[in-house]
Amino acid sequence: MDIDNTFILTPEDLKDEKVIYKNMCIPASEKSLILGTITNYDSTPVENAAIIVYKQFIKGGISHRELMGFTETDKNGSFAVLVEKNDNISYSLEVYRPLNNNIFCR
User: What is the number of structural domains in the chain?
Assistant: First the structure.
């Protein structure tokens, strides 16, 4: 598989626990694999960071944002997301830090 585009999320991008938005243009074809690594301020990989994937498009002159799914990082802070390539669709990835292991849902 040829690499079409690459972007890097730096520690500065992750500062202040904000949602990260990066734009990427990919040529039209069937699918594209987005690979990434999440690290903390000292470049240590972040395991179990949550990544929520949305597709964004305009239909009937109205902007839409649709949830595609989610993934999480592995022990190396790496993640992968497979998306449809389409000239009319953009993708946004929201990255959230891992939950504290002492927090339980009821």
Answer: 1
SS3 state at 51: strand
d(CA 10, CA 105): 31
> How much is the average pLDDT of 52-69?
92
Residue 3 forms part of a structural domain? no
Q: Which tokens is 75 given?
A: 């022990």
CATH code, 29: 2.60.40.10
3-state helix, strand, coil in the chain (%, to 5): 5, 40, 55
Helical ranges in 38-105 per DSSP H = none
Segment holding 104, helix H or strand E: none
pTM value is: 0.63
Range of the structural domain that residue 80 is part of: 15-96
